[in-house]
Design brief:
Largest sheet: 9 strands, mixed
Helix content: 40-55%
Number of helices: 10
Number of strands: 11
Number of domains: 2
Structural class: alpha/beta
Order of helices and strands: EHEHEEHEHEHHEHEHEHEHE
Oligomer: single chain
């Protein structure tokens, strides 16, 4: 369902592929869109590297349980991906009817993170961990489960730094923590005790008397901070958009998170 777009509406974009893990972001994005009455845009990305690999004449994948090699081909992978998009569309139709949201769905072919990062949005949901295998793409029984995120157990994390639009991402992190009914962990990358006190004071003004909030200090280097977050139980990491793009070290750190990521701004 493609609604008319109004200039004052915020656009929430969720980037998906055929892997069950990327679907962890979908229901959170749907719930946020319903709460904010925002436009939900879904971008399904056909992994170009996966398709290139499947096109090789010797392409095959070992079954993890039996150890047997299964041949793969580009036509089979493409057909399976198209079928997944149709199942995704039906799932979105259900959300549209029951959650009273409107959505758009489009498909592109390319590198997942590159296409997701380049897409125009106000709020971007992506998944940064290992992408789908050929077997998952080709086997509908393993790739069609549009599962929802587990609720109420892992925490939502956000990194707060004065002056880089962290206020906007902090407000969104609070809203998502309310939706999921979980703890909010605010990571403060500080170099001194004085800076820590200043950050805590600034955050306290925005949070008021809110409970279920934990502060953690971190290194001022973003890549090291992301690596530390990866060691914790993180259901979602909310960040302000980081300039035009993340550098190579930062992207490598984000890939190690194995949790959904939301970019705001």
């Amino acid at each position: 369902m493609r609604p008319e777009t109004h200039s004052n509406e915020r656009r929430i974009l969720v980037a998906l592929d055929a892997s069950p893990s990327s679907m962890d972001s979908l229901e959170m994005a749907v719930n946020l869109a319903a709460r904010m009455r925002a436009q939900l845009e879904t971008l399904f990305i056909e992994d170009i590297n996966l398709l290139r690999l499947a096109a090789l004449p010797f392409a095959a994948e070992l079954d993890r349980s039996s150890g047997e090699a299964r041949s793969m081909n580009e036509a089979g992978i493409t057909s399976a991906l198209q079928a997944h998009v149709e199942r995704l569309r039906r799932r979105l139709d259900w959300f549209s009817e029951h959650r009273k949201i409107q959505y758009s769905l489009r498909t592109v072919r390319g590198d997942y993170l590159t296409e997701a990062m380049q897409a125009d949005s106000d709020i971007l949901f992506i998944y940064t961990s290992k992408r789908i295998s050929m077997g998952e793409a080709a086997n509908p029984s393993r790739s069609t489960a549009l599962r929802t995120a587990q609720r109420g157990v892992p925490s939502i994390f956000t990194v707060y730094s004065v002056g880089d639009r962290s206020g906007e991402s902090l407000r969104l992190a609070v809203e998502l923590a309310d939706i999921l009914g979980t703890e909010l962990v605010i990571v403060l990358p500080v170099a001194s005790d004085e800076e820590l006190e200043s950050y805590q004071t600034d955050v306290a003004k925005q949070l008021g008397k809110r409970s279920n909030v934990t502060f953690k200090t971190a290194n001022t280097d973003f890549a090291r901070t992301a690596s530390e977050i990866a060691k914790n139980r993180c259901s979602l990491l909310v960040l302000p958009k980081h300039g035009d793009q993340f550098d190579r070290n930062e992207m490598n750190a984000l890939r190690s998170l194995h949790c959904p990521l939301v970019l705001v701004g």
